[in-house]
User: Fold these one by one.
Assistant:
Number 1:
Amino acid sequence: MALYGAAAAVLAGMEARQASLKSLVYGSRFQNVKQLYALVCETQRYSAVLDSIIDSAGLLKAEKKLRPHLAKVLVYDLLLGRGLRGGGRWKPVLARHRARLQAELARLKVRRRVSRNEDLLEPASGARPASKVPRYVRVNTLKTCPGDAVDYFKRQGFSYQGRASSPEELQALEGKRFFLDPLLPELLVFPAGTDLHENPFYRAGHLILQDKASCLPAMLLAPPPGSHVIDACAAPGNKTSHLAALLKNQGKIFAFDLDAGRLASMATLLTRAGVSCCELANEDFLSVPPTDPRYGRVQYILLDPSCSGSGMVSRRLEEPEADGPSPERLRALAAFQLKALRHALSFPALQRLVYSTCSVCQEENEDVVWAALQQSAGTFRLAEALPAWPHRGLDTFPDAARCIRASPELTLTGGFFVAVLERCEGRSSSPAPKDQAEGPPANPQGTRKRKKRKKQQREGGGSE
Ligand SMILES: C[S@@+](CC[C@H](N)C(=O)[O-])C[C@H]1O[C@@H](n2cnc3c(N)ncnc32)[C@H](O)[C@@H]1O
């Protein structure tokens, strides 16, 4: 199916509330999922503006066979996006209406007294709309270095502004300007909405398009080159590729994921990124035996389990009015997350673990970490994660402020949570937890109900 047809079908599905944006995009037959996802999100973001332009230009009255969702996608790309790419028989039709549509866009801007397309968007509630989160780009140090990436973008006509000194500088970023992030090495920051999916440097694996908050887990785990690491819930693999870059491809990453489809995309991503130190396994992490000698040298674990995804910027744009996950769903997710965390803490050589989610719900974050710490009976403690980071864990238990939170409003990122757990000196691990041990909520899916769990994980959010 062609791009515009696929995007129109996804928009129609969303309007009919058939499924979430993510499932509709993955369920479409269009191969370039990222391109489709970006086009749908952007069209959706400008939905009200596009409706108004299409209506005042009389496009649907003049072209009776043009369906409204397709019209919206085509007009988005024609006026606000990258110009019509293909478009088949609709391309000449849109060309006939181009001048009228452009005139309506200009008229709308005059009426609203704005000069940029972006300013036509109604600000979302809250201080800083999610749509203003900058485009973060991690330089893949397995293939290049920040200096070369900066030179590359300068040659592409971007203007380099140096290392940003404050979030305000990043917030004001626009046009073809970019910064180095003030806190994270190897992270470039471009204006919100900068689309680099077709950029050759990205396509060659030199760059990873990854939100700043999602770069924190691997950075805070910080495994030195040569070490053995487990990435427990790894697909689609952005954090795994980050870990491999920190390891300089020396050592080993054991990466697990339940979802074979996501693992297949992950294998492509890792090859493109030049990762050679990773073993992928389509396995349930909960069934990986901690005492297996293969994992005898694993001192570092990254646990980024399925979550509600309530912090994801795309979800906030997609469902701005949504109430968030239901209490039942939260309970089920938190039970799985706690079980996975306890399992991870039972690996005998483990020294340091990072737990992260792209959820903003306390139930999936502070509550899970606190329950796991209590059940570890003093074997592990919370390390102070990145003290310079301004947004801290909710004050729900002693030391919760050692954890990190992230949000569009306070850190100009997606909503996120990170906790770093360290083994207390001289303490060895307790045995792996049994199902429903000591009162933690049970794994909602049950270890034998693998199919059902797979479905639930697929529906769960991802912090990729
Ligand atoms: C939030 S996503 C991980 C994102 C990934 N860390 C990244 O940065 O690209 C959660 C992943 O956990 C996987 N998953 C869920 N339950 C699992 C289990 N019991 N064992 C292994 N993987 C699991 C899901 O299939 C999903 O791909």
Number 2:
Amino acid sequence: MHRDRIGTSPLLPPQAFDVRFTHMTESGKEAREAEVSGGGPLVVLENVNKYYGELHVLKDIDLTIHRGEVVVVIGPSGGGKSTLCRTINRLEPIDGGTIRIDGKALPEEGKALAQLRADVGMVFQSFNLFAHKTILQNVTLGPIKVRKTDKTEAEQRAMELLERVGIASQAEKYPAQLSGGQQQRAAIARALAMRPKVMLFDEPTSALDPEMVKEVLDVMINLAAEGMTMVVVTHEMGFARASANKVVFMADGQIVEENTPGEFFTNARSDRAKDFLSKILTH
Ligand SMILES: Nc1ncnc2c1ncn2[C@@H]1O[C@H](COP(=O)(O)OP(=O)(O)OP(=O)(O)O)[C@@H](O)[C@H]1O
Ligand SMILES: [Mg+2]
């Protein structure tokens, strides 16, 4: 069951975000936009189709994500946003088309697939930390097991990352002892520990209490400003305005519109997007 999140997510009118993100200068985004043009595409989806039985969930998806680019995916519930993310790291197979990461087609299975998954970090709505491992162990597990990093080195790097997301003091605790916002920041640190080429975020703040949303978004804004390539499913328009290079509007399994955040939120081209925005902006 997919609940309709319109009206239930902690959406604020756009002007509220202008205050919320005043610390975010335009310079990071501009610097990234300059970089973006240099590197060539990192993730390329061509004519991707996917079915769940009879249901055509992804319809002829073409999407190019450049290095350092931040793409926000937005759209009504059931439109295929999560499925799109899950196909990019092959948690879900596709039925047609191609997905290439850094020039390489997604492998079917085996070692190459594990390697690819390591290149694609993913942060979900629910935190998915291992409950019986400490935060530090959660962050070092992937590097030790998959990247074969030495334990001391993995722990050193993990502590740096936990420092960066502001929860170094929580390293020895278990997930259940942390707040939702802290757990989500731990999940981000865990994904970053694999040194991914691209980070996928699927509604990373929608399960959080409102007061914890900002601390997670701040981490993501910093990550974007540092040049991480990111695909972010979110209805947080403040994040989109502050950090996105482009907004992809998805509905009924299709990319209906790709636009700059500025244009999308003030001057959407498609009626479907205008209709969607009129609903979320009135709440
Ligand atoms: N494992 C599955 N098996 C069958 N159908 C599925 C499965 N996962 C998703 N679907 C269906 O595929 C469609 C797209 O779902 P998806 O989760 O990608 O949408 P979404 O845009 O992420 O929605 P939301 O905003 O609610 O998270 C929906 O109709 C959903 O019910
Ligand atoms: Mg979803």
